[in-house]
What we know:
By secondary structure, the protein is of the alpha/beta class. It has one domain. 23% of the residues lie in helices and 23% in strands. The radius of gyration is 14 Å and the shape is globular.
Amino acid sequence: MTSVVLEEIPDRVSLAVDISNCRGNCTGCHSPFLKDDIGEELTPAVIDALVGENWGVNCFLFLGEGQDLPALLSLAAHVRSLGLEAALYSGREEVEAELWQAFDYLKVGPYRPECGPLNNPATNQRLYRMADGTPEDITFRFWERS
């Protein structure tokens, strides 16, 4: 599933795309169907078509990372080659170093009902923006809105 979202990445108009084969196991998962291998394969040609159909987006958001790291890294590079920023929502606590370099925005941490989502100051999840190769925690940007 795809949708244009305005609140997932601060100050960005993001084209959000669900990625199946989720490695997470979050209690209270809002999309448990993404644990399965479902949907159309995401390829550079599919990304090109989606971007073409959604004029005005400036960020491509991968909602999940699947289980094929080399393919994900290649798709992130393709997104960036289009002049868009690349963002990834991962439900894992720790991610591979390559992901930090491949994405402009990276959310880490599984959803924990007792901690709440990103807009809850008690959340365990964090959204980072890469600034000159260094992750900058911008999670607080969600708290300003609530």
